[in-house]
Amino acid sequence: MAFDPAVFPRCDQTPVWEGLARHYESEGKDFDLRQAFARDARRFEDFSLDAPHVFCDLSKNLLGRDTRAMLTELAQACGLPAQRDALLGGETVNLTEQRQVMHWLLRYPAQQAAFTPPAFDARRAELAEVHATLEAMLAYAERIRADEGITDVVNIGIGGSDLGPQMAVAALQSFADPARRRMHFVSNVDGHELDAVLRGLRPERTLFLVASKTFTTIETMTNARSARDWFATQGGTDVARHFAALTTNIDAAREFGIETTFGFWDWVGGRYSLWSAIGLPIAIAVGTTRFRELLGGAHAMDAHFATAPLEANLPVQLALLDLWYRNFHGFGSRSIAPYHSSLKRLPAYLQQLEMESNGKRVDRQGQPVSFATSPVLWGEPGTNGQHAYFQMLHQGTDVTPVEFIAVREAAHRLPGHHEQLLANVLAQAQALMQGREDAGGHRHFTGNRPSTFLLLERLDPASLGALIALQEHRVFCSGALWGINSFDQWGVELGKVLARDLTPRLASGDVSGLDGSTAGLLKRLR
Ligand SMILES: O=P(O)(O)OC[C@H]1O[C@](O)(CO)[C@@H](O)[C@@H]1O
């Protein structure tokens, strides 16, 4: 169905936007967290939200009741509920590529769904295909899991065909059996990465998964060709058993010589694809039941997003807060601090999710926007980050909102560790807010530095699925408020074109027509 962006005012075209600007000048910019807690004994309760598998404490943010109400009004004024319904109704919301955006359908169960999206009868055929592909992929994952001859699985893919599965496999490592099977991820065209992995492998014990939505991405095709050559020169036989492709371009995979293929659809964006065949490494690592739990957790969050009122809708409220910080406070980045070492790849995953989705300077009609869009996302697991860059978070000149992610129950039994970890995450959020007076200067902490606290009961497939779906919907909401297309990525194209031109020049030395710097560097690099 046609999606008409002109129906939805951009945030800056609504009267609420002006009101928010005035409100920021009169109160917002001087908001003091310490005073807010002193004034309001119920602040924690009133600024916390419970969503499926995720509890969120928003109370340590620079946000009062008035601000929250005005922001929620902004969401209404931008038609956010109708934009969400367009997404879930299968409208062509990705206008520049003329595509629907339906990653949420990949986790929609065959039975007992928690919500019914708009115009859902039109989705039945696609849903049947989703489930047929899922069944085939999970059956294959179980065959690999049962095959004692396969000890190493190498996923070759980049961007969304790498970051999602890599992040999830690491996050769910306590549900996998590393003694039985090692999972490797090769993404970079830098041969050092593939070479280091290949050195530890034997062809007859290895399964290569070539993961690429388009099956044209230069890095992935270069790595896949090198892996295939290595397999042959090491005496590997039976490519059919040792290579599989995860792609929407089945013909290209066959032409490459891969018979075992698992498909998906153009309505799945790369950075939203871990729920599709791109999730095969996750299914191999943790098995069918766990993979279905991952989908189930995401579906529960989809239902929350689709049905919760705006004030209680966690993705919506996070996106509104993000907008408040980015467009009014002018904060340029958000630091992601997962206090769980298994979430070590989460910051990298979220970087692609948010920055590739919302790092845009024009709106859906191609008009430049006059406000800031995606913040920079960055981070490392706690407590490691505390001994690296938290100094800047506490005492630097920039204010950076921090998103803490903590997990109540540990998956190990080592005494004392988890209490220390939890004490540290609490202490960091507390220190950022409270600060400390010191006349001498060096030991002075200004405090009043905002943070959000996301809490999972335990890190399991369902909670991971919910956490990721939460972030996906939050990114969609920010994009919808800003009036941008969160689902294309034209910004990655120019570099690809230029690299194609420069590759043969590195061999030939031809620098004609190049700028002085590129020509000079190319000569030195030869
Ligand atoms: O899965 P593919 O088609 O190889 O693409 C990989 C990645 O490349 C991009 O197109 C751009 O870098 C990402 O959006 C995508 O996730």
UniProtKB/TrEMBL annotation:
SUPFAM superfamilies: SIS domain
InterPro entries: G6P_Isomerase, G6P_Isomerase_C, Phosphoglucose_isomerase_CS, SIS_dom_sf, SIS_PGI_1, SIS_PGI_2
Record keywords: Cytoplasm, Gluconeogenesis, Glycolysis, Isomerase
Gene Ontology biological-process entries: gluconeogenesis; glucose 6-phosphate metabolic process; glycolytic process
Entry superkingdom: Bacteria
Major location category of this protein: cytoplasm
Known EC number: 5.3.1.9
Pfam families: PGI (PF00342)
Compartments, as annotated in UniProt: Cytoplasm
GO cellular component term of the entry, any: cytosol
Catalytic residue positions: E356 (proton donor), H387, K496
Metabolic or biological pathway, per its Swiss-Prot or TrEMBL entry: Carbohydrate degradation; glycolysis; D-glyceraldehyde 3-phosphate and glycerone phosphate from D-glucose: step 2/4; Carbohydrate biosynthesis; gluconeogenesis
Enzyme type, top EC level: isomerase
GO MF term set: carbohydrate derivative binding; glucose-6-phosphate isomerase activity; monosaccharide binding
Reactions it catalyzes: alpha-D-glucose 6-phosphate = beta-D-fructose 6-phosphate
Coiled-coil region(s): none
PANTHER family per record: GLUCOSE-6-PHOSPHATE ISOMERASE
Functional summary from the UniProt entry: Catalyzes the reversible isomerization of glucose-6-phosphate to fructose-6-phosphate.
Family: Belongs to the GPI family.
Protein's recorded name: Glucose-6-phosphate isomerase
Organism, as annotated: Ramlibacter rhizophilus
Lineage, highest ranks first: Bacteria, Pseudomonadati, Pseudomonadota, Betaproteobacteria, Burkholderiales
